[in-house]
Amino acid sequence: MPDLIEQQGPLTAPASKREPFRIALAGCGPKGMYCLERLIQRLNQSDSRDEIQIIIFDPENVPGAGPVYHPDQPHYLRMNYASGLIDTWSESPGSREKDEYPDLVHWLQRHYPEMADPNGFIP
Questions:
Q1: Which of 5, 10, 49, 51 satisfies CB 3.0 to 4.6 Å to 20 for a cystine?
Q2: Does residue 47 have a pLDDT over 60?
Q3: SS3 call for 84
Q4: Burial zone of 39 (CB within 10 Å; 0-12 exposed, 13-18 middle, 19+ buried)
Q5: What would the pLDDT profile of 80-110 be if each residue is shown by its tens digit?
């Protein structure tokens, strides 16, 4: 391995290009996804045009699920929370466009209408 590093030379960017600002997100279950959404919204509101690189570290293969909501878990461990109560947006429902920021039930109506019951429990 040291030979490979020596052959490639030092890992430095050209002087004319700045290194991207790197942000690591450790864990990307439900709360990690909330964090990512808020981070992206804040970055989009920023005046800075620096390059930003977000690196996500998570052992699961389903982003946003985490071990609690992983789709491969047995049916008896699935989410026990009504779909109509789940919303990832921090703004109040009246302050946003439903098409732009759908809650879970509205998203389900578009993509999985058979699961769009607000009183139902999705897997």
A1: 51
A2: yes
A3: helix
A4: middle
A5: 778 888 776 666 555 555 556 778 898 899 9
CB contact burial 110-122 (16+ within 10 A = b; e otherwise): eeeeeebeeeeeb
Neighbours of 83 (CB within 10 A): 19
| HEC sequence for 36-72 | HHHHHHHHHHCCCCCCEEEEEECCCCCCCCCCCCCCC
Q: Which two tokens stand for residue 121?
A: 């429990």
Helix (H) or strand (E) holding 108: helix 104-111
Contact partners, residue 53, CB within 8 Å, separation at least 6: 20, 21, 22, 23
**Residue 57: strand pairing partners:** 26
18 compared with 8, residue with greater pLDDT: 18
pTM over 0.85: no
**In terms of C-beta density within 10 A (0-12 exposed, 13-18 middle, 19 or more buried), how is residue 84 classed?**
middle
